[in-house]
TrEMBL record:
Originating organism: Bradyrhizobium zhengyangense
Gene3D superfamilies from the UniProt entry: 3.40.50.360
Protein name from the UniProt record: Flavodoxin-like domain-containing protein
Leader sequence segment: none
InterPro entries found in the cross-reference section: Flavodoxin/NO_synth, Flavodoxin_CS, Flavoprotein-like_sf
Amino acid sequence: MADARILVVYYSRTGTTRKVAKSLAAALHCDSEEVVETSSRSGMFGYLRSVIDARRQVPSRIAAGASDPSLYDLIVIGTPVWAWSLSSPVRAYLLANKPRLPAVAFFCTLGGAGSDQAFGQMQEVVGKRPVGCLSITARDVASEKYAPQLVTFVETLQRTLAEDRSTATSVA
Ligand SMILES: Cc1cc2nc3c(=O)[nH]c(=O)nc-3n(C[C@H](O)[C@H](O)[C@H](O)COP(=O)(O)O)c2cc1C
């Protein structure tokens, strides 16, 4: 596990997904990178535009990321749920980096409904099954009640990486 290269990539409009992403990166002892849009989504207009973009499954314009995902063993990708969907900035990241993605895991934050749909869309875009999925409500993030879920998710990722490495070693 100590040698596994993991990157947490996330988008966050209002800070909730960022908080979970930072906790995950700390627990996994790995780098994190925020997906940054080239235009603002603040305010009521930004909210409405987000709903429309998500429902139409439109990728947004994002700045080029600093990290090359192909240099990692696992990319852990986080999104807020928008209109029962994947957020447009994360859709754009997945589309832009699809050929360079190694194994993937997904996480999302949400008000309460739509995580399965969002994860299904993420899997459809990248064309591969995630090694794990984690959804956490914004309420649990605000009240700092997400540690048990986070620990279970991290253990799943660590176990999967360890199994993959032992399979690779026995084949070699
Ligand atoms: C445009 C928009 C649409 C949303 N749609 C949903 C939804 O369909 N289901 C849900 O449970 N929460 C929904 N939410 C709530 C967010 O998923 C939730 O607040 C999330 O934690 C925000 O993450 P962030 O602070 O990282 O941007 C929506 C929020 C926004 C801004």
